[in-house]
Design brief:
Number of domains: 1
Distance between the termini: 155 Å
Strand content: under 5%
Order of helices and strands: HHHHHHHH
Helix content: over 70%
Largest sheet: none
Radius of gyration: 39 Å
């Protein structure tokens, strides 16, 4: 083997390099300066734990909201089916009963005429009764929801007055209660309807605090009944008063019209009787 002593052509540097190489090795690329820092590891672990917890909570809320929305849809569908069955049953009973009345009324004078007048009056009465009931219910729903949204806004404002969270406008809240049934026109029912129809983005944008407040009250009906009894009573009263007002007005109008129709029918029957005798 050659050595400097034996081979003078081999030069060995005897000075220290002035610059340190900055070329990264494979090991340096795969690691960071924080891999062995206990404090940074602790911070990253806390961040990951909090993120995972938030995601789990979000998934749970979404599952609950989807389940409640499904239950609400099923309930409304069942209510519509039952209402349709009741109306059909009432329609059949009225038709059969008034058919007999018409036959009895016209039995002594003209059976065919009696049957026609009986069926006509029965059909008219049935239509008026159904139309009036539907109009009264719709008026009650409209009035109850209107008062209910005002109370929801007042309650949310009181809850968020310190935190400064934003509240959706009345028009936006009204759209969330579209299709609410008469049985759900209560303060808690309106909170529940808003919670079911509220977009997911409300959980994280400027309405996040409002969303949390509504969700909490929707899930605790007893808290609404006891903590906001006055507001709940006002919603119920608005629904009942509006419905009763329509029924009263319709009853007065129907009574007057029924009297006029009865007088007309009696007059026609008398004329027919005279013609038969002649």
């Amino acid at each position: 083997v050659s050595s400097p002593q034996k081979n003078p052509s081999i030069i060995i540097p005897h000075h220290t390099p002035r610059y340190t190489s900055r070329v990264l090795s494979e090991k340096d690329i795969k690691s960071t300066n924080y891999d062995n820092d206990p404090q940074m590891k602790n911070v990253m672990k806390k961040f990951q734990d909090r993120t995972s917890e938030r995601l789990r909570e979000y998934d749970e809320r979404m599952k609950e909201k989807r389940q409640k929305s499904k239950e609400e849809r099923d309930k409304r569908t069942q209510e519509i089916i039952e209402k349709d069955k009741r109306e059909k049953s009432l329609e059949q009973k009225i038709e059969k009963g008034c058919l007999k009345c018409g036959l009895v009324l016209g039995g002594g004078v003209l059976p065919v005429w009696g049957m026609i007048t009986g069926l006509w009056y029965a059909t008219w009465s049935q239509y008026v009764a159904i139309a009036v009931a539907e109009a009264a219910t719709n008026a009650g729903i409209e009035a109850g929801v209107k008062v209910g949204l005002v109370k929801v806004t007042e309650i949310a404002t009181q809850s968020l007055i310190k935190s400064g969270g934003e509240i959706p406008t009345m028009d936006v809240l009204a759209k969330m209660t579209t299709g609410i049934s008469a049985d759900n026109v209560t303060l808690h029912g309106i909170f529940n309807a808003i919670n079911s129809a509220m977009p997911r983005k409300y959980d994280y944008d400027t309405y996040s605090l409002f969303s949390s407040t509504v969700q909490k009250l929707a899930e605790t009906p007893k808290a609404v009944a006891t903590g906001y009894a006055t507001q709940a009573a006002e919603v119920t009263k608005a629904f009942a008063d509006a419905k009763a007002g329509v029924l009263t007005q319709a009853g007065n109008a129907t009574s007057t019209l029924t009297t006029a129709i009865t007088a007309t029918v009696v007059t026609i029957v008398v004329i027919v009787l005279i013609l038969v005798i002649i």
